[in-house]
């Protein structure tokens, strides 16, 4: 949109990366990687005019966790409904929820303006860094003594201990805790997971903070709309064009060589691959400083998630739920205590998939019928935890993959007796599949752990948090960069702004986070 | 009724240090101690006739120089049987490692393959700890409206970090909130050397090495100087010297004087009531008890609801137990000579084993393979036993306070058995040498010292409970909301370990505010 001649090269025959809609089973559309939308920055949506290009996000407004005694805890975005539901378990929890929601909302407000800004380098004395540090310092100071303390606590606590402070009912804590561990190699009692929860709450759908929704037609709708915006602005996409190497000479990027041998020349190369894949597999190591290579090798990208996409012959029933319960249209879970979640993590640490996995299960076809034939349904089940390397030495290409699926299906079937018989087709996505197909190292959905040592000015590596690399003209624009993963597009927008800055082109006001703040 | 200028509750090392500092400033000070012996968790006792053992803490870290100079414990008879104990890290395969400061070698005399990497890591961590060390003797700053002292302290911290140089400062900011697991294993292979360092990071805390924040607790230990000494005459002699130091400055110490409650008028303390009925008057009271116990003595009605809620939520899940043995002679440790046993011995053969031991503890189980820190102080200080015998002091890491089924006599026996079985693998004749044994569970620690949860540090040393957040957000500057009432124990900044810093800081803050008022 700023007049550069841009080409996007994509390894797969389809575009979208981990935001795709694919017909793996005839008649059904799977969002076979990411599956729900919330984090996509409104600044990007507006700047690229994505609704005009077909993006439509439909919020789902409830969810539930089923318990082994045949009950459930339901979450509703409607305040009164939620309060009634919390009261069913504990009056104290219902009262404390108000404080909990306020605390989360305050943290969301604090962090949101930071997402579309370049993280400062706290060690260098460049005016821009100092100005940014002063901006951050002032923002932090403006919180006041009490909230400054609360903010430090929130950013360093475990989600388990944070929830323990507010709630006494296990299933309520377990329901909220899920967002603190999705995609990470951390457990609910690992310090730092309260931030991970925030990372899942700081999005919005049509201005409703923390809301999540389905993209009409699947998550490919996001990337398809972006592709239309790109093409309308004169950009090109070359798919089925895997990059063999990023060409450099004299410390400058010169272009890329495709696996078919074609050389595509450009003075600016922006890599959406994670930092390890970009720097260790596509750049000649000799062109990079040793310290940088060491830091990139040390960057933690730990596979911890798997996924099932399931074609269903009809809508499964959940006997615990009242007829037509609205929460069945939202996110469903069956982990009923923090201890169960922590044990699921311990299994992962030991190199096994969780015997009692946490899952985030949705049937989007109830809201978006375009994704399956009439009367049929599609189910997406995100599974935490599945290690990249199995301690047993098995590969994910053998029986392990089906055994993992069976673990998950059996757990779902405990709450939905007719579920198993409705399965027409299932796609099992192990960490290996996510790595092979999407190129996410270890299948980590965030392109790198979201721990403090890899966040903000430390992401991806200290000294290179400004989307630049030691190779001039080579930039990183993926989730390995600040502010990290999720279908957010913030790293991409921020990287583009830095590229334009280096080229001396003024970025449009709307995309410039500096002014959004 | 006798009137004092100040009364200190509890004659542990922090209480005594606080009393000495107050007396130094000319205050008339009374210390009341509920037990017949002094020292709290730093004290000693006779485990059997003629065998003098440290009750809980068994080594003395270096004291901050300023405090050491002020109290001059040497003048009161404190001497050391041995300073800067080397660490012997036991390996199940016999490849024991000796660590002296930053240097490591195999007990056999052969070089350790990771010696260079360990030395570099250790030196780096020491440099980082040095940048933080200044904070140990400072009152945590007001963040919103800092006074000149706060500003000076924060500025100095900033300068100290910048003075590390760009590369180190970056690394410091990267690992500060990181976990011991990654920071150690990124540099050296897992084994007894890595295990010993990881044990330093988690000792006394309800954390496994994978938990983010454990690097900070490691830096906390290293900020004390890193060395650990054996006082001549044992920890009891150290406590006696500390008491003598207070008494030489005019303090009165009363043993067997449990406090029943505080006297408060117009939101100010006026004195306290002893359990045996006596009333003592003082306008200033420093409590070296933990925050919940101090709250109980004061009465919740004197705190606002938020402070009460926060104090009740202080994370203090103790996981440390103690086994003290009186031995008829030194057991035969296979392949380890007497000289090598005279230092600090640790059994933490791998970082992974530490994590597994923690896994058991977090669900309230006693780990099969707890980590141990062992000292046989009588080797360096033969006067600790009357005859040829030895005393062995063992700290057991990961014996949970919340043990499933509670700390019954059977559970206590099981803990003792687990520890002995673990040691027998190295010293097969250990059992035949035992004259007496004393197994002290976290429940005993709570009963003896009053520390909630039996937590050695009066609350987890986690980021969210450190500095301006210790013991809780809003009460971090020693003064409690009741006029004249201060916290002076490990519950307050900087926290646990036998360094007297919290006591010193609280006394100084009380004097400062007394002047201001």
Brief summary of the model shown:
The complex is a heterodimer of chains A (517) and B (517). By secondary structure, chain A is an alpha+beta fold.
State the end-to-end distance of chain B.
25 Å
Q: What radius of gyration of chain A results from the CA coordinates?
A: 22 Å
Chain-averaged pLDDT of chain A:
95
Strand content of chain B: 15-25%
Ranges of chain B with pLDDT <50 over ≥5 residues?
none
Regarding quaternary structure, what we see is: heterodimer
How many DSSP-defined strands of chain A?
20
Protein model, in words:
The complex is a heterodimer of chains A (517) and B (517). The longest helix of chain A has 25 residues, at 91-115. By secondary structure, chain A is α+β, with helices and mostly antiparallel strands. In chain A, 35% of the residues lie in helices and 17% in strands. Chain B is α+β, with helices and mostly antiparallel strands. Chain B has helices spanning 13-24, 65-71, 115-133, 148-162, 166-175, 180-185, 192-202, 214-223, 234-248, 291-298, 305-312, 338-341, 351-362, 377-380, 409-424, 442-449, 501-516; strands at 6-9, 29-32, 44-48, 51-54, 60-61, 80-82, 87-89, 97-100, 103-106, 228-231, 252-254, 259-265, 268-274, 279-281, 285-287, 320-327, 344-347, 371-375, 390-397, 434-440, 485-487. Chain B has an eight-stranded mixed β-sheet with strand order 9-8-7-17-18-19-16-20, sandwiched between helices. In chain B, a hairpin with a 2-residue loop joins β3 (44-48) and β4. The longest helix of chain B has 19 residues, at 115-133. The model of chain B has no long low-confidence stretch (mean pLDDT 95). Chain A binds chain B through residues 122-124, 141, 144-146, 148-150, 152-153, 156-157, 161, 164-165, 186, 189-192, 291, 298, 300, 339, 342-343, 346, 349, 451-453, 457-458, 462-463, and chain B through 142-145, 162, 166-167, 169-171, 173-179, 182, 186, 210-213, 313, 315, 355, 359, 362-363, 462-464, 468-469, 473-474, 476.
């Amino acid at each position: 949109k700023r007049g550069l001649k841009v080409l996007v090269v994509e390894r797969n025959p389809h575009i979208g990366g981990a935001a795709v809609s694919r017909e793996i089973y005839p008649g059904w559309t799977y969002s076979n990687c990411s599956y729900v939308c919330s984090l996509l920055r409104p600044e990007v949506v507006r700047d690229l005019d994505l609704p005009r290009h077909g993006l439509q996000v439909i919020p789902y407004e409830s969810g539930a966790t089923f318990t082994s005694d045949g009950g459930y805890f339901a979450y509703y975005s409607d305040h009164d409904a939620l309060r009634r539901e919390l009261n069913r378990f504990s009056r104290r929890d219902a009262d404390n929820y108000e404080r909990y929601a306020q605390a989360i909302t305050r943290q969301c407000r604090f962090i949101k303006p930071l997402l579309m800004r370049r993280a400062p380098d706290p060690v260098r004395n460049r005016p821009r860094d100092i100005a940014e540090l002063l901006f951050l310092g002032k923002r932090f100071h403006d919180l006041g003594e009490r909230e400054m303390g609360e903010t430090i606590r929130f950013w360093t606590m475990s989600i388990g201990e944070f929830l323990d402070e507010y709630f006494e009912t296990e299933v309520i804590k377990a329901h909220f805790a899920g967002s603190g561990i999705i995609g990470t190699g951390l457990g609910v009692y690992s310090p730092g997971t309260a931030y991970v929860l925030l990372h899942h709450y700081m999005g919005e759908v049509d201005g409703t903070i923390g809301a999540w929704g389905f993209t009409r037609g699947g998550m490919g709708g996001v990337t398809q709309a972006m592709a239309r915006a790109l093409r309308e602005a004169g950009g090109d996409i070359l798919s089925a064009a895997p990059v063999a190497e990023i060409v450099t000479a004299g410390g400058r990027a010169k272009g890329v060589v495709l696996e078919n041998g074609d050389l595509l020349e450009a003075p600016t190369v922006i890599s959406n691959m994670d930092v390890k894949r970009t720097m260790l597999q596509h750049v000649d190591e000799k062109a990079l400083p040793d310290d940088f290579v060491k830091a990139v090798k040390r960057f933690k990208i730990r596979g911890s998630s798997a996924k099932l996409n399931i074609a269903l012959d009809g809508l499964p029933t959940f006997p615990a739920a009242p007829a037509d319960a609205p929460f069945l249209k939202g996110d469903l879970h069956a982990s009923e205590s923090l201890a169960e979640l922590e044990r699921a993590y311990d299994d992962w640490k030991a190199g096994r998939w969780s015997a009692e996995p946490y899952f985030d299960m949705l049937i989007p076809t109830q809201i978006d019928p375009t994704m399956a034939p009439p009367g049929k349904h599609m189910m997406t089940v995100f599974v935490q935890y599945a290690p990249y390397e199995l301690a047993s030495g098995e590969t994910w290409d053998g029986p392990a993959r089906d055994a993992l699926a069976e673990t998950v299906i059996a757990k779902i079937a405990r709450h939905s007796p007719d579920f198993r018989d409705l399965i027409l087709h299932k796609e099992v996505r192990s960490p290996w599949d996510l790595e092979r197909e999407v190129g996410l190292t270890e299948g980590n959905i965030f392109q790198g752990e979201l721990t403090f040592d890899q966040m903000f000015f430390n992401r991806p590596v200290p000294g290179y948090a400004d989307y630049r690399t030691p190779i001039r003209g080579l930039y990183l624009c993926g989730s390995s960069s600040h502010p990290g993963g999720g279908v957010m597009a913030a790293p991409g927008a921020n990287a583009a702004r830095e590229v334009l800055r280096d080229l001396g082109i003024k970025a449009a006001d709307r995309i410039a986070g500096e002014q959004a703040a | 009724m006798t009137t004092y200028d100040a009364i200190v509750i509890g004659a542990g090392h922090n209480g005594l240090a606080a009393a000495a500092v107050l007396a130094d400033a000319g205050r008339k000070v009374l210390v009341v101690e509920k037990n017949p012996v002094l020292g709290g968790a730093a004290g000693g006792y006779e485990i059997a006739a003629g065998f003098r053992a440290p009750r809980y803490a068994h080594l003395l870290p270096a004291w901050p120089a300023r405090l050491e100079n002020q109290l001059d414990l040497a003048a009161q008879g404190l001497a050391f049987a041995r300073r800067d104990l080397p660490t012997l890290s036991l390996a199940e395969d016999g490849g024991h490692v000796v660590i002296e400061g930053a240097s490591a070698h195999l007990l056999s005399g052969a070089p350790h393959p990771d010696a260079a990497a360990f030395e570099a890591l250790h030196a780096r961590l020491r440099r980082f700890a040095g940048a933080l060390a200044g904070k140990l003797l400072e009152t945590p700053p007001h963040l919103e409206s800092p006074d000149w002292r706060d500003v000076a302290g924060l500025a100095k911290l900033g300068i100290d970090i910048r003075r590390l140089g760009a590369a180190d400062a970056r690394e410091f900011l990267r690992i500060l909130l990181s976990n011991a697991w990654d920071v150690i294993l990124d540099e050296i292979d897992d084994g007894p050397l890595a295990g010993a360092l990881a044990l330093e990071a988690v000792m006394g805390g309800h954390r496994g090495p994978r938990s983010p924040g454990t690097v900070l607790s490691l830096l906390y230990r290293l900020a004390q100087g890193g060395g650990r000494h054996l006082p001549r005459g044992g920890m009891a002699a150290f406590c006696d010297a500390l008491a003598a130091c207070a008494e030489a400055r005019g303090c009165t110490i009363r043993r067997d004087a449990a406090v029943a409650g505080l006297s408060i008028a117009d939101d100010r303390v006026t004195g306290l009531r002893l359990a045996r009925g006596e009333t003592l008057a003082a306008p200033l009271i420093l409590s070296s008890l933990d925050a919940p116990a101090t709250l109980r003595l004061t009465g919740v009605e004197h705190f606002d609801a938020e402070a009460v809620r926060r104090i009740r939520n202080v994370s203090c899940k103790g996981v440390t137990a103690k086994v003290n043995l009186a031995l008829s002679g030194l057991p035969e440790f296979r392949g380890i000579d007497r000289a090598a046993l005279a230092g600090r011995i640790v059994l933490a053969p791998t970082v992974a084993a530490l994590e597994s031991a923690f896994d058991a503890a977090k669900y309230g189980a006693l780990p099969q393979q707890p980590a141990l820190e062992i000292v046989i102080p009588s080797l360096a200080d033969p006067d600790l036993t009357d005859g040829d015998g030895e005393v062995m002091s063992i700290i057991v890491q990961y014996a949970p306070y919340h043990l499933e089924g509670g700390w019954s006599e059977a559970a206590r026996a099981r803990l003792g058995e687990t520890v002995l079985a673990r040691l027998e693998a190295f010293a097969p004749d250990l059992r035949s040498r035992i004259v007496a044994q004393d197994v002290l569970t976290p429940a005993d620690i709570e009963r003896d010292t009053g520390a909630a949860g039996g937590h050695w540090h009066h609350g987890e040393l986690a980021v969210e409970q450190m500095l301006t957040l210790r013991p809780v957000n809003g009460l971090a500057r020693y003064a409690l909301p009741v006029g004249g009432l201060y916290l002076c124990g490990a519950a307050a900044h900087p926290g646990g370990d036998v360094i007297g810093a919290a006591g010193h800081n609280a006394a100084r803050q009380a004097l400062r505010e007394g002047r201001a008022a």
